[in-house]
Specification:
The structure is a single chain. This protein is of the alpha/beta class and 421 residues long. The chain has a domain at 9-69 and 185-249 and 342-399: FAD/NAD(P)-binding domain, CATH 3.50.50. It is 35% helix and 26% strand. Strands 3, 4, 5, 6, 11, 12, 13, 14 and 15 form a nine-stranded mixed β-sheet that branches. Strand 8 (207-211) and strand 9 (216-220) form a beta hairpin. The longest helix has 22 residues, at 399-420. The chain is globular, with a radius of gyration of 21 Å. It starts with 8 loop residues before the first helix and ends with a helix. The structure holds flavin-adenine dinucleotide. Flavin-adenine dinucleotide binds at residues 34-40, 57-60, 64-67, 69-73, 75, 206-207, 233-237, 240-241, 254, 256, 284, 296, 334-337, 357, 359, 361-365, 367. Flavin-adenine dinucleotide (FAD) is lined by residues 34-40, 57-60, 64-67, 69-73, 75, 206-207, 233-237, 240-241, 254, 256, 284, 296, 334-337, 357, 359, 361-365, 367.
Length: 421
């Protein structure tokens, strides 16, 4: 498939990784994983570590989906704040979610364990678009400290200059549990670790459907894989294989640019934190290892990419950093963010098929965890998996054809509310 969105800084700076497409005939294994993004790679690696024989099939290349194209922001937690989770689910369940999704940074653990070279940096800053947003952030920081002993730094508007050279923001929260990385090189690092652990990774192999009986079969174009368990880690494409699961997410296109290396990069983001702001259609940005600004901003509810991604994203960057409004832009790319109705991921098990999708723009950290929890559940301990699998979920209304237009209408409403302040 040619990819009109492939002009990415990550692809241009990716580590070597050969494409193996040597498959025909019939295969058998304990676990067949579909999708070579963070979720699938993490699950495959963790299953192999537990002694399962594993084959992973990826339709394109490892990291082709959101995992190799995202903003690289490692943001602790889920799209809901800890206080929102507690208000909805009560303390016990919220505390279990907090322990997993905020405290248990599995990405850091994997990077350290396998020596993955992916430009990992410490520090994430949530920047307040309005004074009201800052008040809410401050309250949440106090709540996290008192309720969970989780400490973050509350940064006043006057102190923001230590992190970001933009007059726009009314304060923020700096979290040293968060950070940023080169997502494609992390995915490639996971793939190498998985192969070393015995996973057979087949790239350029599209799975078509699963014959869902006890000893199931996965059908590829020219072969089949017989397995005891399947892991559907295809995120935005999940409906192609499991149409019913496809009802739980809609793909929203999101775009990134990378400037040419900037001589004033350190002055723009002096603490080198990744920054995401509090707008509904948020701006998020960070520096690459070679001092480019990688900036994401603006969503498009049509699946068709803008004719020129740099032209589409530049105004958002210029609003935050007028001092580099005319900077040279070397790369522009995009990808689909799979979003659920309530912005919580949809994770679970149906018979011998495990799935995890719909991380709603908050997947860079939690997907690695989700993959590992799937392996844990498969090996017989489902307690931690169930914490995530029991999150409430609802399919989008509207059936196959109306689902996306209806979801789009809802999102446009929030985006409009953003603009009206
Ligand atoms: C532009 C953008 C910016 C983002 N920024 C951030 C961020 O800064 N921080 C953050 O936390 N999250 C961010 N996200 C979200 C995050 O990237 C995702 O939540 C996460 O990468 C999802 O990983 P995954 O493995 O579940 O899915 P994916 O990475 O999408 O992997 C799915 C894989 O399945 C493969 N596949 C699909 N169908 C088949 C098939 N039939 N057979 C075989 N293979 C198949 C695809 O080719 C793909 O490689 C962003 C997403 C995008 C698109």
């Amino acid at each position: 498939m040619t990819d009109p969105l492939a002009n990415s800084y990550y692809a241009a700076t990716a580590h070597e990784w050969p494409v193996h497409a040597d498959i025909e005939g019939e295969y058998a294994c304990d676990v067949a994983v579909i999708g070579g993004g963070f979720t699938g790679l993490s699950a495959a690696l963790a299953c192999a570590e537990r002694g399962f024989s594993v084959i992973l099939v990826e339709a394109e290349k490892v990291g082709f989906g959101a995992s190799g194209r995202n903003g690289g922001q490692l943001i602790p937690g889920l799209r809901w704040s800890a206080s929102e989770l507690e208000a909805e689910f009560g303390h016990e369940r919220a505390a279990a979610l907090f322990g997993l999704c905020w405290r248990d940074n599995r990405v850091k653990t994997r990077i350290a364990k396998h020596g993955i070279d992916c430009d990992l940096k410490v520090g994430h800053l949530e920047a307040a678009w309005t004074p009201k947003d800052f008040d809410a952030m401050r309250r949440e920081a106090e709540y996290l400290s008192k309720r969970y002993g989780y400490e973050t730094d509350v940064i006043s508007k006057a102190e923001m200059g230590a992190h970001i050279a933009s007059p726009l923001y009314h304060g923020g929260i700096h979290d040293t549990q968060g950070g940023h990385f080169h997502p494609l090189n992390y995915a490639i690092g996971l793939a190498k670790a998985a192969e070393a652990a015995g996973v057979r990774i087949l790239q350029g192999q599209r799975a078509n459907w699963i014959l869902d009986s006890n000893a199931g079969e996965l059908f590829l174009s020219e072969s089949t894989i017989e397995a005891r368990y399947f892991i559907d880690a295809t995120d935005s494409w999940i409906g192609d294989i499991e149409p019913d699961l496809g009802r739980y997410t809609v793909p929203i296109m999101n775009y990134n640019i990378a400037t040419a290396p900037l001589t004033n990069a350190d002055a723009l983001l002096p603490s080198d934190a990744a920054v995401a702001d509090s707008r509904f259609v948020l701006n998020y940005f960070r520096l690459s290892a070679d001092k480019r600004l990688i900036f994401g901003g603006g969503e498009r509810y049509s699946q068709t990419p803008p004719r020129d991604i740099a032209v589409f994203v530049r105004p958002f960057m210029a609003q935050v950093f007028p001092q580099i409004a005319d900077a040279k832009i070397d790369y522009g790319w995009g990808g689909a963010v799979a979003v659920t109705m309530n912005r919580l991921p949809h994770i679970g098990r149906r018979g011998n098929i495990f799935y995890a999708h719909g991380f709603s723009g908050h997947g860079a950290l939690v997907t690695t965890l989700a993959g590992e929890l799937i392996a844990e559940a498969m090996a017989g301990t489902a307690e931690r998996f169930d914490v995530l699998a029991n999150l409430p979920s609802q399919p989008f209304p509207g059936g196959k054809w109306l689902r996306r237009p209806l979801a789009t209408l809802g999102l446009l409403w929030y985006a409009l509310r953003d603009r009206l302040g």
